[in-house]
Specification:
Blueprint lengths: L1 E3 L1 E6 L2 E9 L2 E8 L19 E5 L2 E6 L3 E6 L5 E5 L4 E20 L7 E6 L2 E6 L3 E16 L6 E6 L11 E4 L6 E8 L3 E5 L5 E6 L2 E9 L2 E7 L3 H12 L12 E3 L7 H13 L6 E4 L22 H10 L3 E6 L8 H8 L15 H18 L3 E4 L18 H15 L8 H16 L7 E3 L11 E4 L7 H15 L6 E2 L40 H14 L5 E3 L17 H15 L1 H14 L4 E2 L1 H4 L4 H4 L5 E3 L3 E3 L8 E2 L3 E2 L5 E6 L5 E3 L5 E2 L3 E6 L7 E4 L3 E4 L14 E5 L5 E7 L13 E8 L4 E4 L13 E7 L4 E6 L4 E4 L2
Parallel strand pairs: 20-21, 20-27, 21-22, 22-23, 23-24, 24-25, 25-26, 39-43
Antiparallel strand pairs: 1-5, 2-3, 3-4, 4-19, 5-6, 6-7, 7-8, 8-9, 9-12, 10-11, 12-18, 13-15, 14-17, 15-16, 16-19, 17-18, 28-29, 29-30, 30-37, 31-32, 33-36, 34-35, 34-37, 38-39, 40-41, 41-42, 42-45, 43-44
Helix pairs in contact: 2-3, 5-7, 9-10
Amino acid sequence: MNQVDTVVIESGKKTLIYRNISDNIIHCTCGVTGSIIKPSPLGIEPPASGVFQYDRTNHFHIFGNGTLKAEINRKTGKTYWSHSGSGKLLFEETDRELYEIPVYQHTTKGEAPEIKRVKTVDGERIFINNLVQEEVRTAYRGKLWFEWQRDEKLHGLGQGEEGIYDYKGSVQYLYQHNMRVPFPVLISDRGYGLLFDCGSLMTFNDDKRGSYVYFDTVDQLSYYIVYGPDFDQIIKGIRKLSGRAPMLPKWSFGYIQSKEAYHTQKELLDVVKEYRNRNIPIDGIVQDWNTWEEGKWGNKLLDKSRYPDFPGAVKDLHEKNVHVMVSVWPNMDPSTENHKEFLDKGLLLHDLSTYDAFNPKARAVYYKQLKEELIAAGVDAWWCDSTEPFCGPDWKGSFRREAWERFLLVGEEHKKYLDPAKANLYGKYHAKGIYENQRKENHNKRVLNLTRSGYAGSQAYGTVLWSGDITATWETLKLQMKEGLNFCMSGHPYWTLDVGGFFVVKDNWRKRGCNSSNDPEPKWFWQGGYEQGVDDRAYRELYVRWLQFSLFLPMFRSHGTDTPREIWNFGERGTMFYDEIERCIRLRYKLMPYTYSLAGRVMLQDYTMLRSLLFDFPEDETAKGISSQFMYGDSILVCPVTEPMYYEAENIPLERERTWRCYLPLSCGWYDFWTGNYYEGGQWILAEAPINKIPVFVREGAIIPMEQGLHFADEVVDTPFEFHIYEGKDGSFQLYEDSGDGYDYEKGIYNLIPVSWDDKKRELSLGKSRHSFPQSIKGRSCVIRTSGGREMFFSYDGTETTVSLS
């Protein structure tokens, strides 16, 4: 048995190269014999560490440090991957294919461009009518063929629209589009994941034609196999390769109010003032598009007639402890000052509208333009909209085209203006530019970028992805839950959506937003179910249930068009919808210590907050197939209600039982979060589900830290800090604390306080606290509240402390 760093195998006209990355990761490359290994499209540069054991017999046997084993049949070329410790088969690679193709760029060949400006629901687009194809190099189309195990479940691939939870037996097109965020990641319930090192359009196919992943434009087939076997280890491996997620500012985990659109600085100020007057917590206000002067699409200079003193407005909002997020776009109208600067410097893509985010010089210019008025005014965060950035050809018409047709239509539009090998990468590089340039200049403000497009590695740039312009229907809510779970199983920890759906009306076109209230033409995507908007109690019910679901997402944000979203539009205090919206917002803040500690684990341990049940209950066959429930952290089980119980559209009352069927996974008992009732795991139950109660359960042995009375994330309050103990098993929790903003945590300036519960002794123990922060529990009065109804007050001075309830 030979030990070598890298195994190279000649197989026909192809060269296979295997590199050991770590104990549980192997890199596989397949290229045309004689070609050199190309740079990674994802920017992965892992060193070869450790060795392979290589045995050249009738089969090739390659062992990766005792974890992964590849057995290659010399005659058939099939590769059998298994876990070398148990000999357990993971999957089979049945073939690898590469087909040489020409690669084109599209230019006007020196002629004056024929520019067509189009105003769409999704913003202004510019098309160049006289582009000419010019061959610039050759590359390859590629296929990796697989044979999966019987009953194997496959997840990941980012976020689509269809709500497919298990991709076995389906076809999925991976291209950037409004409501689509592809990730080149597959993760299997058999304990492994695949990261495809590819930036082009892709297709996952599993049907009678075979099981394969198709790559539109590559220089080689390059992919990583990551063994877990648990999902947290797989995600950790994916982030090790593609990039680890930094801390987001603490305020980003509070409540964020948005809509399409506030039109003046006065509107922003008035909305925040009303929330504060009503004593309802809020941490962020979002300024959507059209801050520029009329006709100057995408300009990062403000319309002074509507924003006469934006620095003063931001200062006023900051004094109320509310942060400001502003929508910015990568494309600009030719009439704008920002566009002229990019054009003069030759830093535009060939649509002559979108800046070239792949060029570091262009990224620097983009950030400079952000600084001129927005950063100078004190803007806290970015809403990077339309970062696909080409989807215009499909964002029109009265009917949805076939899936393959949309893939070709939108994908080919990307390939007109981007190198086809980078067709899925624009949003990632756009985020990279904002993150890296802001980090160079400001150590005290964390980057927060809510963006509509991303890819493997986007998590390293302070991004939160949202699911695009979805419709207000119960079916959409069901589908979105599946999409969010698959997105987080693709390696990115931060996902959110538009609470209540973006599009609310359908036929009532006069109520449309997005400057479309004078356009009676039906739109395939404008398919909301509530023509009266917020005046329909049926929509209010949907909105509340959506908000209850969003309460347990990494970002808690209301947004949409057609109808207003602020709480006072849903009634007044004392009415059921208003009261539940307020209660949801307050519960989000009550859970802030728990949520922020989960974010600390994301940064420190590559953790996942929004968790498919596969993360925590892989041995529970029932739980593995459930996509209608999820874990928020590893202690809280969330079972969103996704059917109406009170009203149908047009204010028609419903009479039905207000209960919801919930599955409680095996391996532990569960407490009802609201009543404290205890249930054994491994059973379905019928939970009470009135409008003021989303079914939520807490795992036996859990420790949930809570804070009372917050009105914003960083508020210092004098109420006792609470530890809620769910008895029956020993438990532990790591309470994370830092300054809430800035990057001092990278220097180790944070607290990770171990908290443990000894169920037999009925003792709670806290470890040391090294640092003091304004909201730290060090020096605070604390209280233990148990599921059995016991209560104990104590003080914590930052030293090891044990409190006995015996």
